[in-house]
Amino acid sequence: GAGVSQSPSNKVTEKGKDVELRCDPISGHTALYWYRQSLGQGLEFLIYFQGNSAPDKSGLPSDRFSAERTGGSVSTLTIQRTQQEDSAVYLCASSLGPAPWAQHFGDGTRLSIL
Amino acid sequence: ELKVEQNPLFLSMQEGKNYTIYCNYSTTSDRLYWYRQDPGKSLESLFVLLSNGAVKQEGRLMASLDTKARLSTLHITAAVHDLSATYFCAVDPQGGSEKLVFGKGTKLTVNP
């Protein structure tokens, strides 16, 4: 597709379960970002990948959160032992190079923890 | 720590009226971005402001940046229903950093 694709679009799971969220960036985009948007809040930066460089993980809220990007393309965000406060929309964005002003956002994954 | 504050957080206005949304931030930056988000949708880039005094206009929306006052405004002229959405500002705290800091958003409702 032409845009950033995220899956699933919605995920409901029980507290304590692990979840994996997927992001397919725009082809050729070397930079990939993950954000979290809690209800009524702005976006909170989580992690940033740029090419083969070590990712900037400084926004990850706890060690239950991790992300990887395989082959410089698809990325997965994993949340282990989910908690209710993890409920949010998780947005992925990509850009051609490190250009935050030119990010293209996916539609997000709405995560609900019961 | 950079803080970004938008106000108002909620705005209900009638079609044809003018209004301004404000975005204040706490540390020096000369890069600020505005986004629009429709319900259940992702963010759409509206404006990229990269210097003091920058002004950008698109249709009924105009954005400006005053880096000395650490303030950006998004002005709405003669609002129409199609402008109903949530508007976010985001500040690049280190000029080229990828860690944008977002405001909480302003939910705009334009009533016929």
Describe this structure as you would to a colleague.
The complex is a heterodimer of chains A (114) and B (112). By secondary structure, chain A is mainly β. Chain A is 0% helix and 46% strand. In chain A, the strands form 2 sheets. In chain A, strands 2, 4, 5, 8, 9 and 10 form a 6-stranded mixed sheet that branches. The mean pLDDT of chain A is 93. With 112 residues, chain B is mainly β. Helix content of chain B is 0%, strand content 54%. In chain B, the strands form 2 sheets. In chain B, strands 2, 4, 5, 9, 10 and 11 form a 6-stranded mixed sheet that branches. In chain B, strands 1-3-8-7-6 form a 5-stranded antiparallel sheet, with no helix packed on it. In chain B, a hairpin with a 2-residue loop joins strand 6 (55-58) and strand 7 (61-66). Chain B is globular, with a radius of gyration of 13 Å. Classes of the chains: A mainly beta (114), B mainly beta (112). Chains A and B meet through strand 5 of A and strand 5 and strand 10 of B.
Provide a concise account of the structure shown.
The complex is a heterodimer of chains A (114) and B (112). With 114 residues, chain A is mainly β. Chain A has strands at 5-7, 10-13, 19-24, 31-37, 43-50, 65-69, 75-79, 88-95, 104-105, 109-113.
Report the helical percentage of chain B: under 10%
Total strands of chain B: 11
DSSP strand content of chain B: over 45%
- End-to-end span of chain A in angstroms? 32 Å
Structural class of chain A: mainly beta
Q: Could you tell me how far the N terminus lies from the C terminus of chain B, measured between alpha carbons in angstroms? A: 41 Å
Radius of gyration of chain A, CA atoms, in whole angstroms: 13 Å
Could you give the order of the helices and strands of chain B? EEEEEEEEEEE
Return the average pLDDT of chain B rounded to an integer.
92
List the helices and strands of chain A in order: EEEEEEEEEE
In the predicted model, the low-confidence regions of chain A spanning at least 5 consecutive residues are none
What structural class results from the helix and strand content of chain B?
mainly beta
Number of helices of chain B: 0
